[in-house]
Amino acid sequence: MTEAHDTIGRILDGTATIAVVGLSPNPNRPSHGVAAYLQRQGYRIIPVNPNAGPDEILGERAYPDLASVPESVDLVDIFRRSEFVGPVVEQAIAIKAKYVWMQDGVINDDAAGVARLAGLLVVMNDCIFRQHRSRSVA
């Protein structure tokens, strides 16, 4: 088993609550589809929409940033452009999240390094939906 595969397994198995940063209310957006899938798999989804979208997404109250989330978060799943990841990672560290997941195309080595130095497990440039589904059918 590779180190990346082991990290992914630890994250998926150790997560109950996922804050999805950049979760769109639009069902046609990838963030919406991925979050809906994760919700159907039993994960608690907390929408974080920095652009202050609707009050609820996928039946859950949406928050403008991670600092506003009133409960503990295991995983911060990031659907934001790479250049906006640094502050999200800093907030993930501040709220004591255990894991950071940067979705396909989201690459920020500096932010990943900061997260790892703070003790968080990190996945970068990968899709949690695809990884979860491949583990479920294996």
Q: Can you tell me about this structure?
A:
37% of the residues lie in helices and 18% in strands. By secondary structure, the chain is α/β, with parallel strands linked by helices. It has one domain: NAD(P)-binding Rossmann-like Domain (Rossmann fold).
CATH topology-level fold name: Rossmann fold
Backbone shape: globular
Q: What is the CATH architecture descriptor? A: 3-Layer(aba) Sandwich
Uncertain segments: none
By CATH reckoning, the class would read Alpha Beta
Round the Cα radius of gyration to an integer and report it: 14 Å
Question: How many runs of DSSP E, i.e. beta strands?
Answer: 7
Structural class: alpha/beta
Give the mean pLDDT: 93
Instruction: Please provide the ordered H/E string of secondary-structure elements.
Output: HEHEEEEHEHEH
Strand composition percent: 15-25%
Number of helices: 5
Summarize the amount of helix as a percent range. 25-40%
First and last CA, distance: 14 Å
Corresponding CATH superfamily: NAD(P)-binding Rossmann-like Domain
Q: Please indicate the count of domains.
A: 1
Task: State the strand order across the main sheet.
Answer: 2-1-5-6-7
The biggest sheet, with number of strands, parallel, antiparallel or mixed sense and barrel status, is:
5 strands, parallel
